[in-house]
Amino acid sequence: PEVTGVVATVVEAGSRVNAGDVLVQLSTDTFERSVRDAQFALEQAEAQRGSTASTQADNDTTLQESIANAQRTIANAERDVQTKLTDLTLKQRLVSVGGESSEAVRLAQNDYDTAVATLEQAQLSLQTLQGSQTYRSSSNEQTLRNSDLAIEAARNSLEKAQEDLTKTTIVAPFDGVVSTVNVKTGSIVNTTTAMLTVIDDSNIELPAQIDETQISKVQLGQTATVTLDALPGETFEGQVTKVATAARIEQNIPIFDVTLLLDNSSGRLRDGMSAEATITVGEVGDTVTVPSRAVSVTDGQNSLRLLQADGTTKVQEVTVVATEGLDTIVQGVPENSKVVTSAPEQTRNGFTPPGFGGE
User: Fold this and answer.
1) Alpha-carbon span 209 to 243, nearest angstrom
2) Which of 7, 29, 130, 181 is 20 to 30 Å from 196 at the Cα level?
3) How confident is the model at residue 359 (pLDDT cuts 50, 70, 90)?
């Protein structure tokens, strides 16, 4: 399993399964709760982001209104300064001609200075508000960015919780048979637990041992006929897929290991059955098998003696294909011929016809 959990259901050993079939189902209670918690955390993060954005919007509106008020205050202060400056200038002109007192000029000067101070204060307030607007804009962006990151983290947690929930169902990766089951309902498993074994038995391997005298004839891709003690009278086809490059010694005899691949789509062949294979190392047409003692060699030419209808024998040149034990496979023997397998013998009454073995 890819998660830690408690086994709720498990298939039985020997069950045949197809790819995608459920093998083990872990209890989902804890994982479903984790999904709900993660979903709630995501909704909270999204709601917090919305609340933050709303508060920021309200604060921005209030600040914009304050800036607008400050701008209006400056405009009023500028008009007041201009009015006070005009009044001061007029009084200064009148006092020179005796039309206004110096006290009136002093008061006008005070009014003008006050108006200027008010303007400067209004301008300073506007600058402060504008600086606050720049800082707040940067701060708001960072706050929203943090909220977005919190949402992304919550979403990732939700996705992981959902993935973990799906991992509570363990399915067959391929068609096969469940060979062993190591857990039962209620077992606590984790990512290091081997719960069961599924074997793909659509093709199975047959390890075979070949004597050193025969191994030179065995090649990859050769076909083989396989018989089993458990299925008498039946044969199965196999193919050589591996040939050992070195021998191993078994009871002081060099043995070469060869692997045959057998089609088991029927599912009748099972692990552990004993079998015997005959590997076809070559095929030659128009041949017969004769006892090796019937073959003579003269000046490098192989021949047989064939029995004629009149009881005489005829020498027939043949081509030796292979010798297997006491038998030799040859070509060049006419159909329905009788092969003499023993030398002629003399008896007290005269000549005894030669023996023969097979047609």
Assistant:
1) 10
2) 29
3) very low
